[in-house]
Write a structure and sequence with these properties.
By secondary structure, the protein is mainly beta. It is 10% helix and 63% strand. A hairpin with a 2-residue loop joins strand 3 and strand 4.
Length: 240
């Protein structure tokens, strides 16, 4: 039952946003835009049992398509889909006793796992502001991803001092290459008459799937991505 609750929450959120974005009860619009996006990911992984980590930075970028269907009072409603390349993974935090007896980071030991995905988010788009000018918006919806590559970097690690949790990931290939979850965020958009739209956005992705097997006989009970993305997008209108 524990794993059912995130699906129910995601389903309710998606249903609510979709109804808001598609119900034709406001002023109809038919604005279709396409463009490109790019930015950075700040990645971590939720492990159970836990593994201490630093944020791992990666890149993200790809193609964006958006359709604005209506304006309902002050709210501009639509839907957006993207096809992105996205770098995820984790950077393990090693600690040693410091001068005062406190645990401090040991920079001589390095373990990072980088994972490359093709991501496809399906987003409800709700914006507030001028149709030509400055807008504030929120995005929310499901996201799927497909693992296309992975790599490990190990330097200076004393394998004899690793605990069982750390040993469980070293050299272990990703077992589930299909990834899915929910994503959402918000930002600011400047819509111009002739030059297109310029967008700054922050977004968070919460994976509902695990990339390692998590049955009772497996070591991990959870191994899932959590990613903060900061990105820029440029769109131009194909249909106004």
């Amino acid at each position: 039952m524990i794993k059912i609750k995130p699906f129910l929450i995601a389903g309710l959120l998606l249903t609510g946003f979709t109804l808001s974005a598609t119900a034709q009860i406001g002023e109809a619009r038919s604005n279709f835009s396409v463009g490109v996006n790019g930015g950075v990911n700040l990645n971590s992984v939720s492990f159970t049992p836990t593994i201490k980590q630093n944020s791992l930075m990666g890149i993200t970028g790809g193609l964006t398509a958006r359709y604005i269907s209506e304006k309902y009072f002050a709210m501009i409603c639509g839907a957006q889909v993207e096809l992105n390349f996205s770098q995820r993974g984790w950077d393990q935090l090693f600690e040693i006793p410091g001068e005062n007896g406190d645990m401090v980071e040991d920079p001589t030991q390095i373990y990072t796992r980088k994972m490359s995905y093709i991501d496809i988010p399906f987003l409800a788009h709700l914006a507030f502001g001028n149709e030509r000018g400055l807008q504030f918006f929120i995005h929310a919806g499901p996201q799927i991803g497909f693992l296309i590559g992975e790599s490990e970097k190990i330097e200076g690690v004393n394998m004899n001092k690793l605990n069982d949790t750390q040993k469980a990931v070293y050299g272990t290939k990703i077992q589930n290459k299909f990834d899915y979850g929910i994503t959402g965020g918000g930002g600011v958009e400047l819509r111009t008459k002739k030059a297109g739209s310029f967008i700054v956005e922050g977004r968070y992705y919460f994976a509902l799937s695990d990339f390692y097997k998590t049955t009772k006989k497996d070591y991990f009970a959870r191994a899932a991505h959590g990613t903060i993305s900061i990105k820029l997008t440029y769109l131009f209108d194909l249909k106004k």
